[in-house]
Amino acid sequence: MDPAHPTSGWPLLRRVLWEQRRGLVAGMVIGLAWSASKVAVPRLTRIAVDRGVIGRESLWFWTGLIAAMAVVAGVFSGWRRWVAFRESRLTETRLREQLFAHIMKLHVGYHDHTQTGQLMSRSSSDMQQIQGFVVMIPLTASNLAMVVAVVIVLFTSQPLLALVALAPLPVVNLLAQRFSRTIHPAVLAVQAEQAQLATVVEESVSGVRVVKGFGAESVQAEKLRVEADDIRRESLQSARVRSTFLPALDLLPNLGMIAVLGIGGHRVLNGDMSYGEMFEFFQYIVLLVAPLRSLGMTVAFGQRAAAALLRVTEVLNTVPEVDDPPKPRQLPAEPPVGGVRFRHVTFGYDPNAPVLRGFDLAIEPGRSVALVGATGSGKSTVARLLTRFYDVQDGKVQIDGVDVCDLRLTDLRHAVGIVFEDTFLFNDTVIGNIAFARPDAPIDDVHRAAMLAGAHDFVTQLPDGYDTVIGERGFSLSGGQRQRIAIARAILADPRVLVLDDATSAVDPSKEHEIRDAMATVMRGRTTIVIAHRPGTIALADTVVLVDDGRVAATGTHDELLATSERYREVLAALRDEEQADEQADEQADEEVIG
Q1: What is the pTM of this model?
Q2: How far is CA 263 from the centre of its chain?
Q3: What are the residue ranges spanned by the domains of the chain?
Q4: Would you identify the CATH topology of the domain 363-373+414-594?
Q5: pLDDT of res. 502
Q6: Helix (H/G/I), strand (E/B), else coil: 389
Q7: Is 31 helix (H, G, I), strand (E, B) or coil?
Q8: Which fold, 10-316?
Q9: Separation CA 385–CA 125 (nearest Å)
């Protein structure tokens, strides 16, 4: 069986519940005490009627004893529900944190082929289904114990009445509307917190390249931990409402026992039953209604939880194809640092269709190289291999003489900073986005990074300056502004090697010079790989490398290659035509929207 496609998810739940065995056992013990106190009340009622009412013996004593036992049952009822919800929410929180950490650990190739909505569903609704089942475990144990005890008592005392009474029983709940009005705001509060958590998960999954590129998995995990704890707090408040109302609902008498009352009444009149036995029997029937209904709900919850556990287990069983080495090495600390070497690298997203074939490239520390090539030539693949988003199938990728496969992923991704073509900003303040990988960075360092990226002037003009919340994905800013914040983010991370992956492609050509000025400042004295197709951006690099058919086809300055390489001129012309076609398509789409 493929471990990533298990046939059952129950082993996962058993492992988590085993870690919580003390709390669950405590909940079951409390539930058994509740069952015992509930079962004792009808027997005390029988004795009170037969001795206190009919026999005129110590009526106040038996009445007081019944009242005391009812109070005890009420206390244990609220207590068992509190423990049950506490343990179920703890299970949900632990599984959610485990699932989120594993999703962030999975390689980029997995995310390329997995729908974000599926991961969101596993992180939210599936977890709710599991929580709904776990909460029933201690409750079901006590309910089952009560059903068994009551059925034994009924059949040993009045077999005929027991057969009549165990037919389906209707339940009329006089406090249902009030309970519904009270529980609704509590449920809405839980849903609101779940929406906040879903935002963190969605952004982390959608922006997984940014998270991985800066080695900031722990930063996002901390954000999730805060939201998960908020959900747990609001859920426990909801549990308090339930533990307050449900004991009262449980004490209400049940209607619809006419047949039992009629048969039992005739038996009392005929002298075959005492008045106390009649009261006792009737109370036991009432006790059966809620537990039997609860047992039916447990079966339904179990079916939904089984499907949810299977879906969650499929993700957790997926083994990351890119992981930390058993014995990681350290990058040299002494300068010069930032040397990059690709040695006979072969790689393909489909192993049978390589994108790079014997790719060789050496970049000296502090130098900048522009990679130019036709669409699909493998330019962006070079950056993905440098950061180990994927591993090479043959050859080596080295930084300062160390194979990237020998480095911890966190160390590697702190050493290589990336400004992506598709700029991703989080629903956070400007300072939160710039300091994404270094949330504890001094404010002066943040300002310096913004100045170097050419972002400081426009940021100070925002309503709240650096504290302005820029909205989901940063769409409240222009493309150029988003790109400069992304560059500032990379500067603050202070990487040895900076990769600018087509960083001006989403910027209006009239504003491109502003981004180029920021890029030129950032590149100065830093090892930089520029993936570009616009001549102005290409000219920023010390050296231009033409990538063609997965290999280095030519090397030189931009002017040298224009003069000596026909293939270089063809590639630039093709890229220019593609850009013009894209611009025309965008203009046409805008006209259709306006029309």
Answers
A1: 0.76
A2: 58
A3: 10-316, 363-373+414-594
A4: Rossmann fold (3.40.50)
A5: 74
A6: coil
A7: helix
A8: ABC transporter transmembrane region fold (1.20.1560)
A9: 35
